[in-house]
Amino acid sequence: MMKKIKNINPGKSKIYFLILIFFLIFLSINYSIANSIGLIKLKVLDKVSSKNTELEFKIGDTIIYKNLQIKALKCKNSEFDDDPEITAYLQVIDLNKSGNDEVFVFNGWSFASSPSINPFDHPVYDLWIIECI
């Protein structure tokens, strides 16, 4: 009696199937990372009334708090330190200033553990990072 011979080697089909699965997993992980929009938590101190307000918004969104327009472009938690550092790139505009020759009151990186490296200097408000989510 004659044996039937298959055209496809079973070992090759399993390899192609595994490659396809790994490729699909890789694409889905990259898609989820690229489309995940993080959140940032900031604390704002009104120096006149001595009240703290906690703000939470999406990175890339612009929010208006009283007369400040705040936009967070980046927010990162360091992953490799024993004492993790939270950094954020913020742009803040004071909407009260008429005839404003400066575009931003603050435009730069802010560090949660040492805000004095690049301080947010405003006569009425203090602003600092709490966390990136």
Determine the fraction of residues in helical runs and give it as a percent range: 10-25%
**How many angstroms separate the termini?**
68 Å
Q: How many β-strand stretches?
A: 7
Mean pLDDT score = 79
User: How many alpha or pi helices?
Assistant: 1
What are the secondary-structure elements, in order, as H or E? Answer: HEEEEEEE
Shape: elongated
Q: How many structural domains are formed by the residues?
A: 1
Poorly predicted runs are none
User: What structural class do you assign from the helix and strand content?
Assistant: alpha+beta
Strand arrangement in the largest pleated sheet: 3-4-5-6
The description of the largest β-sheet is: 4 strands, antiparallel
How much of the sequence lies in strands comes to 35-45%
What's the assembly state of these chains?
single chain
Please give the radius of gyration in angstroms.
Answer: 25 Å
Describe it.
The protein is an alpha+beta fold and 133 residues long. The chain has one domain (39-132). Helix content is 20%, strand content 40%. It has one helix at 10-35; strands spanning 39-46, 51-58, 62-65, 68-77, 86-94, 106-111, 125-132. The chain has a 4-stranded antiparallel β-sheet, with no helix packed on it. A 3-stranded antiparallel β-sheet has the order 2-1-7, with no helix packed on it. A hairpin with a 4-residue loop joins strand 1 and strand 2. The longest helix has 26 residues, at 10-35. The mean pLDDT is 79.
Tags for this model:
single chain; about 130 residues; alpha+beta; four-stranded antiparallel β-sheet; three-stranded antiparallel β-sheet; 1 helix; 7 strands; about 40% strand; elongated
